[in-house]
Amino acid sequence: MISVNGVHKRISGSNVLSGVSFAAESGQITVLLGPNGAGKSTALRILTGLERADRGSALFGGVPYRELLDPLRRVGTSFGGSGAHPSRTGRGHLTWMAISNGIPRARIDEVLEMLDLGESARKQTGDYSLGIAQRLGLAAALLGSPDYLVLDEPANGLDAEGSEWIFSFVARFAQSGGTVLLSSHLMRETESLAQRIVIMAQGRVIQSGSVLEIKGGHSTLEAAYLSAIKSDRSRPGLG
Q1: Of all residues in the chain, what percent carry a pLDDT higher than 70?
Q2: Which fold has domain 2-232?
């Protein structure tokens, strides 16, 4: 499982995260919800070793990302877009990743087929639409056949069809036993697919639980989320 325990982070003199704790279980989709600036991306970046926490721990199966052996084979990450140089083809980008991480080239064809990127893989990534770039980013995350997926706004900027495709894919990954942790602003998809929700605001976790627990007496997840955020905004900021 993924466990984030009492994580604190200050940037430029301001508290970005203040005692953030949550868990993501295997075989489930856990979604971080929160307004812009809530600290969701920072929490995911600390979890995946891109930033360091001032205090606290963020672990995969009890181990920090920086201490994982063959991290690409354990954890697949995507932080928006393809992550590829615009002059490279999609296949070229995946080939470079495979060679540098000792992954068999046969896996490239597997993930390209999985993400329906056959034709696009021959084109330069600078010519990709946002939806295709997001798919290539997911293909790169899956290249090492990881146990975990950590995705920051994987459906950001996509149309309804593209968003549905991405969420359906990660649902299948979780159903196969993988652990999925992602951030999102999409309430309908979150309500239908997530097993656990963590709502963040002002660098803190203000609610967490199953969809039913979060909804409480509200008719929709969106209504419950807006109520939680409105209530939290009456509290002083973290400065």
Answers
A1: 98
A2: Rossmann fold (3.40.50)
